[in-house]
Amino acid sequence: MEAAAISASHVHDDHHHGPPPANRSSRVEPALLGMLLFIISEIMVFGAFFTAYFFIRVVADEGTWFPVDGKDLPKLIAGVNTAILISSSFTLHWAENALKLGNRRAFRAGMVATFLLGATFLFVQINEYVHIGFSPQDHAYGTVFYGLTGLHGAHVTIGLVLLGMVTIRAFRGHFSAEEHRGVEVPGIYWHFVDVMWIVVYTTVYIL
Predict the structure, then answer these.
(1) What band does 66 get if pLDDT is binned at 50, 70 and 90?
(2) Which terminus of the chain, N or C, has less C-beta within 10 A?
(3) Domains delineated in the chain
(4) At what angle do helices 104-131 and 75-100 cross, to 10 degrees?
(5) How many whole angstroms separate alpha carbon 43 and alpha carbon 66?
(6) How many C-alpha atoms does 151 have within 13 Å on its Cβ side?
(7) Which of 12, 56, 45 is nearest to 151 (CA)?
(8) Geometric angle at alpha carbon 192, from 125 and 171, rounded to 5°
(9) Is the pTM of this model over 0.90?
(10) What is the pLDDT of residues 117-127, one digit of tens each?
(11) Residue 71 pairs with which residues in a beta bridge?
(12) In this structure, are residues 156 and 189 in contact, taking their beta carbons and an 8 Å threshold?
C-alpha cells in the first residue's frame, strides 16, 4: 500500500518540470501594470517641467509671458494641431473596438489613420520650431517653452514607434479578438500622450 502511494507520488511529480509558477500579488496583468507604473513616472517628469514653467511665470516682470521681443506663440496653429492629435485617440479607439469585434480591415485602417495623424502632429510641431522666431537660449521663456513642448514631442516620437510596430503586426495578421493586449498597452500610452498635450497646450499657449 505504501509502495503504491510512493509510486503515485512519483508519477504526479513527473508531470511538473521546472520552477513553480511565479506568485502574482496583483490582479493586474504584468504588461498593463508595467505601463501604468511607467506613465506614473512620466507624469512626475512632466511635473518637474511644469514646476519650472510656473516658477518662471510667477517671477516674471508684471506676470508677463509671450509675446516677447515682438514674437508670440502660434496659438491658432497649435490649436489645429491639438485637434489633430485628439482625433488620433478616437481613431485608435475605433481600431481597438474593431479588433475586438473581429473586423480586421477596420482595425488596420484605424491603426494607419492613427499613425498618420500622430506623424502629422509631429511634423507641424517641428515646422513650428523652424518658423517661431526664437530659440531656447534667447530667454527663459524660450527655454521653458522648448523644454515642455520638446519633452512632449519626444513622447510622441516614442508613441509613433510603438504605433508603427502595432500597425506592421496588424498587416501581418497578428492580434485577434481574444489576443489584443499588444494593442491595448501601446494604446494606453498614446492616450496618455494625447491627454498630456492638452495640459501642455492649455498651460503654455492659452493661459
Answers:
(1) confident
(2) N
(3) 28-58+76-206 (1.20.120.80)
(4) 160
(5) 26
(6) 20
(7) 45
(8) 80
(9) no
(10) 999 999 999 99
(11) 68
(12) no
